[in-house]
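Each letter names a residue; the fold follows as tokens. Both lines appear below:
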Amino acid sequence: MMMFMLYLLPLLMLLSGVMVYISNRAHLLATLLSLEFIVLALFLCLFEVLNFLNYENFFSMMFLTFSVCEGALGLSVLVSMIRTHGTDYFQTFSVLQC
């Protein structure tokens, strides 16, 4: 029963992160946080699968490296949008304004 709960937790985390990502489209920061939560849930799923199959965890370290790069890129986009537009609220952006 405990093993079932151990495997169910990352899947619940993944589903809740996807639901927050779908439902919250107002601020870029909230969107980036939900994406990072999804990446964390995927890392937990990957780690459990690799441990269950008795593989090495080298690929999980590569996954963490790429997720850190993705987070840094998202934060740099957030900072540049705040510097140019003054806010991270999506409704203030225009498609015609570049």
Summary: The chain has a mean pLDDT of 84. Helices lie at 2-23, 28-52, 58-85. The first helix runs from residue 2 to 23. Residues 26-88 form one domain.
